[in-house]
Specification:
alpha+beta; Adenine-n6-DNA-methyltransferase TaqI, Chain A, domain 2; 3 domains; 25 strands
C-alpha cells in the first residue's frame, strides 16, 4: 500500500487508538529512512558530533523561580519545547546580569532544542526567530547543525519513533531519566544531500498538515457524536421505550457502555424502567410486614427517611425506607493472620474486600487460613448471600453483590458485611439500589478515614442508607429488565471492542507493510 492510499483510507483506521499519532510516527519513520521522497535516498551516516557546531545546555539562576522577572531576556524551559512547535506558555525572563552567566547558551533562530531530562525527555523542536538571544536552562540542550544538516531535518530525525524509543530507554541514575552531551554527540544521523533534505522537510510539512486536518475532523466528529449520545440518553431517560432504547445502539455513533449502564440503573431505581401495576401490593404494606418480623425478633429500628434526604421522586406505590429496616440480620466475618497467597484445594480461606466488586463475586480474592487455625463456619459465605464491602477507596467503598455461586470454605473478613432479607425483598433489586448514584453519594458523605485511598463505612451507616422500595412484583420486573438490557450493553461493548481491535490490527498491518525495510 502506498502512503497516499493510507491517508485516503483513514476512515478504516479512525477507531484505532491514537490513529493520527501513529500516522505522524509513520511519516517521520519514512522520512528519516529515505523512503518518503523517492529521489532522496540516504547517502551516508555521520555522528551528530561531526554535524554540529554546538551541543550544550544551560542552567537555572540561583533562587529558582523567585529569581525570574516579568520582562527581560527569555529563559527557555522544557515546558516550552513540544513536538508540534515552540510554546511560549510559561516563558520567564532573566536580567542582563543573570543572562551574562549563561552566555554560552545564547539561542539563535532555527537552533534545535531538545529536552534532556524528566517526563518530557526527547521532546524536540526548532527555535522560532523571536527567541533569538534567549537562554536555555539545564533541562534543554541547544543543537546547532552545520551547513550540511538542515535544522528541521535534524528535529524530524530526533522526533522519529526509533530515536524516541532509544531516548526513552535511557536511564541515568536511580530514578531520573537524562541524556548527556556525550550520548547526543553519538547519535548517528542519516544524511541525504541538502536538496533531498529540503524535499523531505517539505513533504513532511505537507503530510503533517494533513494529519492536523484529520485530527480536527476527528475532534469535530467526536463532539457531534457526543452531543447525539447525550440527546439519545436524555430521550431514553424521558421515555424508556423500545424505540428509544434502539437509539442507544445507533450505528452512526457509539455511546460509552458505562454511560448506558449508568442510565439504565438510574431509570431502574427511579421507577421509570418498567410499568407500575395497580394490582401490585404497595411497598408500604411490605414494609409493615417486615416491621412486624423485626419487632418479633426485637431488632433495632432506624428512623424513617425524612423529606430532606429524598434525592428524587418515586412512584406512588413505592416507599423510601432505610436498608436496616427491611433486613432481618447483618453480620460480618473476622480477620485472622492469614497467608498473603490465596488458598489451594479445599482448605479454609478468608475473603478479601476485593471479593465484592460491583455486582460480581470474586471467590478467588482470598487469603489462606494458616494450618491448625480453627475456622468459623458461621462466617462461611453461601450462595444467595447479599454482601457489602465495608472498606475501600472512596469511589469503591460499600460495593455490593448477590453471591450466585461460591466454592465451600470461604469466610467473610471483618471488612465484609452480610445482610439477610425476608421474602418480601428481592436482593438483586437492593443490589441495584445500593449501586445507584444517590447511594454512592451517601456513602462518600458518611465514610470515615483521613485518606481517600482507604475509607470505611460502619454497619450503622449501611443500615441507615435510604433506598427506594417498589412492590415485590415490580422489584422482580425491574431486575429482569435490567438483566435483559445489561446483556444488550455487554453485546455492544463486545462489538465496540472488536471493532476497535480490528481497526487497530488493520492499521498495525498497514504500518508494518509500509515500514518494512526493502532489499
Amino acid at each position: 500500500m502506498e502512503l497516499a492510499t493510507f491517508f485516503e483510507k483513514f476512515d478504516q483506521f479512525a477507531d484505532a487508538p491514537n490513529a493520527v499519532a501513529k500516522m505522524r510516527e509513520l511519516v517521520l519513520h519514512l522520512a528519516v529512512t529515505g523512503r518518503l521522497v523517492a529521489t532522496a535516498q540516504v547517502c551516508q551516516k555521520k555522528p551528530l558530533k561531526s554535524l554540529a557546531t554546538k551541543i550544550g545546555s544551560g542552567a537555572t539562576p540561583a533562587g529558582g523561580r523567585e529569581s525570574y522577572f516579568s520582562e527581560g531576556i527569555p529563559l527557555i524551559r522544557s515546558m516550552n519545547v513540544h513536538f508540534r512547535g515552540f510554546d511560549r506558555t510559561g516563558i520567564v525572563f532573566l536580567s542582563e546580569e543573570q543572562a551574562d552567566k549563561l552566555a554560552n547558551v545564547v539561542v539563535q533562530p532555527d537552533d534545535v532544542l531538545l529536552n534532556i531530562t524528566g517526563a518530557s525527555i526527547g521532546r524536540v523542536t526548532t527555535a522560532p526567530p523571536e527567541m533569538a538571544g534567549a537562554r536555555v536552562n539545564q533541562h534543554v540542550t541547544i543543537i546547532r547543525p552545520t551547513a550540511e544538516l538542515l535544522p528541521r531535518f535534524l528535529a524530524m530525525f530526533l522526533a522519529s519513533p526509533a530515536v524516541q524509543q532509544m531516548i526513552n530507554d535511557v536511564q541515568v541514575g536511580a530514578t531520573r531519566q537524562a541524556l548527556t552531551k556525550g550520548m547526543i554527540e553519538q547519535f548517528i544521523i542519516p544524511l541525504p544531500p541538502l536538496a533531498g533534505q529540503k524535499r523531505i522537510v517539505t513533504k513532511v510539512d505537507k503530510l503533517m498538515a494533513l494529519c492536523d486536518r484529520l485530527e480536527a475532523q476527528q475532534q469535530d466528529r467526536d463532539a457531534r457524536h457526543a452531543a447525539l449520545a447525550r440527546a439519545s440518553l436524555a430521550r431514553f431517560a424521558d421515555a424508556p421505550t423500545p424505540a428509544n432504547l434502539n437509539l442507544l445502539f445507533h450505528p452512526a455513533y457509539a455511546i460509552a457502555p458505562a454511560d448506558i449502564r449508568k442510565t439504565i440503573l438510574s431509570l431502574a431505581v427511579q421507577g421509570k424502567l418498567v410499568h407500575q401495576d395497580v394490582n401490585d401490593e404497595p411497598a408500604e404494606e411490605l414494609i409493615d410486614r417486615i416491621s412486624d418480623k423485626r419487632r418479633a425478633a426485637k431488632l433495632k429500628g432506624y428512623r424513617p427517611v425524612d423529606s430532606g434526604e429524598v434525592p428524587y421522586e418515586i412512584p406512588e406505590s413505592w416507599s423510601w425506607v432505610r436498608l436496616g429496616n427491611v433486613s432481618l440480620k447483618s453480620d460480618s466475618g473476622w480477620s485472622p493472620q492469614c497467608f498473603p497467597e490465596g488458598r489451594s484445594g479445599t482448605e479454609w480461606g478468608v475473603l478479601k474486600v476485593s471479593a465484592v466488586s460491583w455486582g460480581v463475586f470474586k471467590a478467588e480474592e482470598n487469603k489462606a487460613l494458616p494450618p491448625g487455625m480453627r475456622a468459623r463456619p458461621d462466617c462461611e459465605v453461601q450462595a444467595g448471600d447479599f454482601l457489602l464491602s465495608r472498606a475501600n477507596t472512596e469511589e469503591l467503598v460499600a460495593r455490593s453483590v448477590v453471591v450466585d455461586q461460591t466454592p465451600p470454605r470461604l469466610m467473610m473478613s471483618d471488612k465484609i458485611v452480610r445482610f439477610t432479607f425476608p421474602d418480601e425483598i428481592e436482593k438483586a433489586f437492593i443490589n441495584l439500589a445500593n449501586s445507584s448514584d444517590s447511594s454512592r453519594d451517601y456513602y462518600v458523605r458518611n465514610a470515615s478515614g483521613t485518606s481517600s485511598s482507604m475509607k470505611n463505612v460502619g454497619r450503622d451507616v449501611m443500615c441507615s442508607l435510604p433506598i427506594p422500595l417498589p412492590p415485590l412484583a415490580e422489584q422482580r420486573r425491574i431486575v429482569a429488565k435490567v438483566d435483559e438490557l445489561m446483556a444488550l450493553v455487554d453485546q455492544l461493548e463486545t462489538q465496540l471492542a472488536a471493532s476497535r481491535a480490528a481497526a487497530s490490527n488493520l492499521m498495525e498491518a498497514v504500518v508494518a507493510e509500509l515500514t518494512v525495510e526493502g532489499p
